[in-house]
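Deliverable D2.4 — example input (structure tokens):
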């Protein structure tokens, strides 16, 4: 999706959204190289939210900081509906439900220093059960850092490929990354007031794994 205010990209797994101290190649650099109107603030693209390096899927960028601020406010007040697809180890006792726990978020401006734990809420629905793993639709109500990955690890069902919040060696099924995909974004455009929904299909590596 693209208009004069926002562009929604399909982020590949393995790419940072913003640069790190030791890695400058990131989505911000790539999209501004290809899609920026000009070098002024209004013509530059700014991310309105984040996805982990490992996570693929739909992500919103804004033309200019004013549009970025408007969209970030929509995220803050939970007006943007997000649905992810995840592959998790094993089988959940419930086919749908809600996970609540306090987890530590990170302060990006303080070199990712841990700050006080905050309540995180994740809703889920099992879509398929395969041999040794499940395909789950996930709706994060809050937006804590790595919330989905943390919650399923806390339940004893970490994502396939999880290496940060679980030991991959403890599980027989292997995947090259944390198997998480930002599948659907749905929101009211903060400027035009039109409802917009974008759908990002499963990337090739997750499709091939299912096959």
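Example output (designed residues):
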């Amino acid at each position: 999706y693209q208009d004069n205010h926002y562009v929604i990209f399909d982020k590949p797994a393995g790419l940072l959204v913003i640069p790190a101290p030791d890695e400058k190649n990131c989505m911000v650099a790539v999209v501004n190289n290809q899609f920026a109107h000009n070098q002024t603030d209004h013509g530059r693209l700014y991310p309105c939210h984040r996805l982990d390096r490992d996570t693929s899927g739909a992500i919103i960028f804004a033309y200019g900081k004013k549009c970025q601020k408007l969209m970030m406010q929509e995220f803050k007040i939970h007006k943007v509906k997000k649905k992810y697809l995840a592959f998790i180890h094993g089988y959940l006792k419930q086919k749908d439900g809600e996970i609540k726990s306090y987890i530590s978020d990170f302060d990006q401006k303080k070199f990712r220093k841990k700050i006080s734990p905050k309540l995180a809420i994740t809703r889920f629905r099992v879509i398929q059960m395969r041999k040794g793993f499940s395909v789950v639709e996930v709706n994060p109500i809050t937006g804590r850092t790595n919330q989905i990955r943390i919650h399923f690890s806390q339940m004893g069902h970490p994502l396939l490929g999880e290496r940060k919040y679980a030991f991959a060696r403890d599980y027989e099924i292997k995947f090259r990354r944390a198997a998480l995909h930002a599948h659907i974004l749905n929101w009211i455009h903060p400027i035009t007031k039109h409802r917009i929904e974008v759908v990002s299909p499963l990337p090739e590596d997750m499709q091939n794994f299912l096959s």
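Strands lie at 6-11, 45-47, 56-63, 81-89, 96-107, 113-130, 133-140, 180-188, 195-199.
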